[in-house]
């Protein structure tokens, strides 16, 4: 979100996760234009930023160090719904003085949300990495529903993100598996679910809300249309 909201010159550093092709939400070439930190208090304090944007899961000791150093902080959650993600965009945009850019980002999200009208919702499993599936109560679950799918993991009783027993998949196979191409677990799933369609969902689309919602919705909608 920050890379899209403000000029590059205003960004002192980004998370080291953004330099990891398996974790980034940015094109890797774009991410590597920026310095990255591991998020330690020492690294961040040395940069003397005007604002530290971090996760609400940041360790208390690190938070205390930021406070002692007099750093202004903004701790963000992982938004579980599209509405929460839009609110987060606006919160960050307000914190960095980028109101207009934030509203443009929210408008792009809204344009991507035309709910697909379908007579039947095929069951789908969305794996974010390896054997980690997205269940009920997640941003991706809402996007799957809007794209015209029934989230099979939610039907199995999975809340949030987690692993599913192979026996459950074999007993109630989904019609489609949506997952990053070439990820761990692909070969096993193909053996267990020989009649299930496998659809590629780029890894960059599973890590973040905000500006990743429009391309994620576009890809999910295309997968659903292909099943028709």
Question: What descriptors fit this protein?
Answer:
11 helices; alpha/beta; two-stranded parallel sheet
Architecture overview:
The protein is α/β, with parallel strands linked by helices. 40% of the residues lie in helices and 15% in strands. The strands form 3 sheets. Strands 5, 6, 7, 8, 9 and 10 form a 6-stranded mixed β-sheet that branches. The chain has a two-stranded parallel sheet with strand order 1-2. Strands 3-4 form a two-stranded parallel ribbon. Helix 10 links the parallel strand 9 and strand 10. Helix 5 packs antiparallel against helix 6 and helix 7 packs across helix 11. The longest helix is centred in the last third of the chain and has 15 residues. The model has no long low-confidence stretch (mean pLDDT 92).
- Average pLDDT, to the nearest integer? 92
Q: Which residue ranges are poorly predicted, with pLDDT under 50 across at least 5 consecutive positions?
A: none
Largest sheet: 6 strands, mixed
Number of helices: 11
> What's the β-strand tally?
10
Distance between the termini: 34 Å
């Amino acid at each position: 979100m920050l890379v899209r909201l403000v000029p590059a010159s205003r960004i002192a550093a980004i998370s080291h996760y953004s330099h990891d092709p398996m974790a980034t939400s940015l094109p890797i070439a774009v991410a590597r234009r920026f310095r990255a930190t591991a998020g330690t208090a020492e690294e961040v304090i040395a940069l003397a930023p005007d604002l530290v944007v971090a996760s609400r899961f940041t360790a208390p000791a690190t938070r205390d160090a930021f406070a002692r150093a007099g750093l202004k902080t903004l701790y963000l959650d992982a938004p579980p719904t599209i509405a929460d993600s839009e609110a987060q965009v606006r919160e960050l945009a307000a914190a960095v003085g980028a109101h207009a850019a934030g509203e443009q980002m929210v408008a792009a999200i809204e344009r991507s949300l035309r709910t697909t009208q379908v007579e039947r919702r095929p069951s789908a499993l969305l794996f974010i990495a390896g054997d980690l599936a997205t269940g009920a109560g997640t941003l991706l679950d809402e996007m799957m529903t809007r794209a015209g799918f029934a989230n099979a993991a939610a039907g199995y009783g999975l809340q949030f993100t987690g692993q599913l027993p192979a026996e459950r998949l074999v007993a109630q196979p989904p019609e489609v598996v949506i997952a990053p191409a070439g990820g761990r677990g692909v070969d096993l799933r193909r053996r267990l679910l020989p009649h299930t369609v496998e659809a590629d969902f780029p890894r960059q689309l599973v890590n973040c809300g905000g500006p990743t919602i429009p391309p994620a919705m576009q890809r999910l909608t295309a997968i659903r249309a292909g099943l028709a």
